[in-house]
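User: Hi! I have a protein structure encoded as tokens and I'd like to know what sequence might fold into it. I'm fairly new to this, so please keep things simple.
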């Protein structure tokens, strides 16, 4: 699969852009576990052109994680064009436009998935961004605003006509948010459209090797994007790809615990001890390493309440070396 001149190989599996999740450290770890491409946290066009420090920091890319896309969102043409030009100077491999974020503070203001209620404006923004930069431009969006407006098949054609070089489709409407099952039949309809020539990337509920194979073999997508299933489990890329590539090395339990320790340390080093631990709690709460441990409630509470680096590492070591061996 190619996006412009960027060759992602056969059946690529990519890390989806997620706010407060896909920071530089996490992206690099996912890359090391087999992610074929990474996406930054989404970047507000308005904040970027105002030079808000917290936003400009999101543009940093580690050369080892490439290829990487920087994703931008906004609701007006001129700020999106200006933001795209700023992003181009940061030298990502791809600029991606977010027309899929469903959260109220974004979609409710007309950006992200909110653009699904104003298709002419969406197309105007897309065409203007494509024309303003030399990098490949891609789009990530949803099936439609709600069940009664699943417009993605026609919309995909319109976006292609604007000049985008790949399209990612999350198999839910904005109204669904992240509930219910992703509709991969609709994603397949996009891919089957003979008028569409750009790569189609499917997104939604890819949590097992079986679902990954189904995405490629049954629904025919060119690539797959993995989002929430990677939170607290960046090694999922190795596990997923082992289902389609027997040569893929699976991480050991010890390597998974070492990975969590690395995430904690790099989060603390990047921010500070207090806020770095707050940031990493989402990963700890979601990690499958702790999901099947019986009578784990008190240890889990202690882990999520830990306030120092040392305290948190002690709890994780206790789980690895004291609790888990008793269950085997």
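Assistant: Happy to help. Inverse folding works backwards from shape to sequence: for each of the 328 positions I chose a residue that suits the local structure. Here it is:
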């Amino acid at each position: 699969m190619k996006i412009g001149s960027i060759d992602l190989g056969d059946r690529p599996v990519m890390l989806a852009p997620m706010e407060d999740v896909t920071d530089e450290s996490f992206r690099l770890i996912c890359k090391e576990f087999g992610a074929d491409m990474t996406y930054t946290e989404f970047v507000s066009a308005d904040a970027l052109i105002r030079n808000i420090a917290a936003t400009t920091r999101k543009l940093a890319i580690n050369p080892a994680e490439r290829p990487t896309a920087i994703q931008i969102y906004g609701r007006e043409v001129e700020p999106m064009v200006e933001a795209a030009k700023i992003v181009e100077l940061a030298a990502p491999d791809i600029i991606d436009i977010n027309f899929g974020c469903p959260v109220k503070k974004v979609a409710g203001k007309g950006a992200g998935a909110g653009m699904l209620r104003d298709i002419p404006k969406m197309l105007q923004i897309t065409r203007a961004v494509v024309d303003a930069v030399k990098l490949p431009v891609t789009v990530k969006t949803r099936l439609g605003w709600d069940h009664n407006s699943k417009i993605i098949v026609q919309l995909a054609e319109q976006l292609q006509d604007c000049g985008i070089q790949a399209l990612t489709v999350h198999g839910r409407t904005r109204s669904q948010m992240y509930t219910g099952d992703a509709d991969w039949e609709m994603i397949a309809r996009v891919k089957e459209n003979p008028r569409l020539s750009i790569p189609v990337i499917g997104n939604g509920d890819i949590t097992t090797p079986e679902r990954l194979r189904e995405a490629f073999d049954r629904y025919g997508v060119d690539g797959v994007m993995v989002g929430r299933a990677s939170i607290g489990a960046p090694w999922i890329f190795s596990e997923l790809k082992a289902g389609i590539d027997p040569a893929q090395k699976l991480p050991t339990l010890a390597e998974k615990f070492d990975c969590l320790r690395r995430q904690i340390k790099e989060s603390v080093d990047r921010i500070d001890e207090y806020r770095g631990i707050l940031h990493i709690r989402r990963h700890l709460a979601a990690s499958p390493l702790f999901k099947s441990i019986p009578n784990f409630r008190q240890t889990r509470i202690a882990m999520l309440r830990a306030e120092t680096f040392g305290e948190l590492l002690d709890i994780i070591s206790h789980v690895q070396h004291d609790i888990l061996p008793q269950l085997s």
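A useful reference point when you look it over: The chain has a mean pLDDT of 96. Feel free to ask if any position seems puzzling.
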